[in-house]
Design a protein that fits this description.
The complex is a heterodimer. By secondary structure, chain A is an alpha/beta fold. Chain A has helices at residues 2-63, 65-77, 111-125, 140-148, 166-181, 213-216, 218-226, 239-314; strands at residues 96-101, 133-138, 152-157, 187-195, 201-209, 234-236. Chain B folds into 2 domains: 7-91, ATP Synthase, domain 1; 95-140. In chain B, 30% of the residues lie in helices and 40% in strands. Classes of the chains: A alpha/beta, B alpha+beta. Chain A binds chain B through residues 39, 41-43, 45-47, 49-50, 53, 57, 80-81, 165-167, 170, 228-229, 231-237, 241-242, 244-246, 249, 252-253, 256, and chain B through 12-17, 30-32, 35, 42-47, 71-73, 75, 77-78, 82, 84, 86-87, 120, 123.
Chain lengths: 315, 141
């Protein structure tokens, strides 16, 4: 009996330590979550502005895509630099690029498996095979998974910081866009978990390139008149020149935005996972304590019985 | 004196808003030359150079706030000028040591790219060099 008492005691103290750790991790994640949310509101202002300008500018181009393709073709000849107008042109799709945003570490609940599973669904539903898919993995978990499955992982990026700054993702984003203009893929999706609130996140697969009416959003075109952007702009130097500046910037901001969103969801998910781990630890501790007390009580009872038995024998 | 007419200058980057003030005049360096905007300008869109944006401090003769802007564009409507750029820093916030390091690094990269005759790399290095020089210039005057 004594041995098992000792054992239960040891289990209680080890579970308590685990509880402390998960409790601390939960607090850290929650703090990071509120930090990143503050950061995201700043980004939101930027994204909204760029979006409203692009909606205004791209409208004429989207309605008349013939103009865009001809001018893009002529621009393409004079250099291999990232060309803005190229992003508007639809190419026949031979290969599809998918950006998969996962986390680098575990302990984030179903966050990673959710993204990976849904991305695989997307690939199979689209009748793609491993040959016409190019994966760009942001985060180690996704990179390892898709490599093991024999997918073509064109680029992997690990070590996204807790609060990603635009500057650090800039290289990555540039790379992604260069690969598009090098025709490594003809369309680009980004798959990530969108942060809904601290309890839930939902999977999103968004078309990113080429930039079309679809991903600017038809509702965006409608909103325009309401938000007062119907005014005609004076362009300096020209509409095409401005589009060439704005479009890459828009694509960059979209990719950065999804990384930011995914990271927010990661912190939320990590916080929830650690909360439930702490709760579970508490449950285990209370049942173990009950078990411990019962064992202790029964040990005492046995002892008393033995003593009274011995007493009776002596009398 | 009649009340001074003002416009709002707002500089937004993906890492948040950097600058948000009212001013009687703002001067931008666009890709085709310098551009001054006064209040109630007609709506305007212009792409910017990697250079400074100068915003006149209200109530002063020739005091300007200077902001180092890393390209991007400016949009003006409803009396609000919004600069949308990948990054931007106010003069006061520029880290001189960091900018100096960035300049050195860019110069080394440029040197290397020239030797390799890699035009693509060269161009990228040139852009980083311009960014670093821009920051240095602004913080020095």
């Amino acid at each position: 009996m004594g041995a098992s008492l000792q054992e239960v005691k040891r289990r209680i103290s080890s579970t308590k330590k685990t509880e402390q750790i998960t409790g601390a991790m939960q607090m850290v994640s929650t703090a990071k979550l509120s930090q990143i949310q503050r950061h995201a509101t700043g980004y939101q202002a930027y994204a909204e502005k760029i979006r409203s300008v692009i909606t205004h500018l791209a409208k004429s181009h989207l309605l008349d895509s013939g103009v865009a393709s001809s001018s893009a073709a002529s621009n393409h000849a004079d250099g291999d630099q990232i060309n803005g107008l190229e992003m508007l042109v639809k190419r026949p799709v031979k290969t599809t690029g998918i950006i998969v945003v996962t986390s680098d570490r575990g302990l984030v609940g179903s966050y990673n498996s959710n993204v990976i599973k849904q991305t695989l669904d997307l690939i199979t539903n689209g009748n793609h095979s491993t040959d016409d898919i190019v994966i760009i993995a942001i985060g180690g978990t996704g990179a390892d998974f898709f490599k093991k499955r024999g997918f073509n992982v064109a680029y992997e990026y690990r070590g996204v910081s807790d609060i990603p700054k635009f500057r650090e993702t800039h290289e990555l984003v540039k790379r992604i866009i260069t690969m598009y203009s090098e025709e490594i893929y003809d369309e680009l999706y980004v798959c990530y978990n969108h942060f809904v609130n601290s309890m839930t996140s939902e999977f999103r697969a968004e078309p990113m390139l080429p930039i079309s009416a679809m991903n600017i959003g038809s509702e965006g075109l409608g909103e325009e008149s309401a938000s007062g952007f119907t005014a005609e702009y004076e362009m300096e130097p020209s509409e095409d020149a401005i589009l060439e500046v704005v479009l890459p910037q828009y694509a960059e901001s979209l990719i950065y935005g999804s990384i930011l969103d995914a990271k927010t969801a990661e912190h939320a998910s990590s916080s929830t996972a650690m909360k439930s781990a702490t709760d579970n630890a508490k449950d285990i501790i209370s049942s173990l304590e009950l078990q411990y007390n019962r064992a202790r009580q029964s040990a005492i009872t046995t002892e008393i019985t033995e003593i009274t038995g011995a007493q009776a024998a002596l009398d | 004196m009649a009340e001074e007419k003002l416009l709002t200058v707002n500089v937004v980057t993906p890492d948040g808003s950097v600058y948000d003030e009212k001013t009687p005049m703002a001067v931008f360096k666009t890709t085709v030359g310098e551009l001054g905007i006064l209040p109630e300008h007609i709506p305007l869109l212009a792409s910017l150079e990697i250079d400074e944006v100068r915003v006149k401090v209200p109530g002063t003769e020739d005091k300007f706030d200077e902001i180092a802007v890393n390209g991007g564009f400016v949009e003006f409507s409803n009396n609000i000028a919004t600069v949308v750029a990948n990054s931007a820093e106010r003069k006061e916030n520029i880290d001189l040591a960091r900018a100096e390091r960035a300049r050195k690094r860019a110069q080394e990269r440029l040197e290397k790219a020239r030797q390799e005759q890699n035009i693509d790399k060269q161009r990228r290095a040139e852009i980083s060099l311009r960014r670093a020089l821009n920051r240095l210039n602004i913080s020095k005057h």
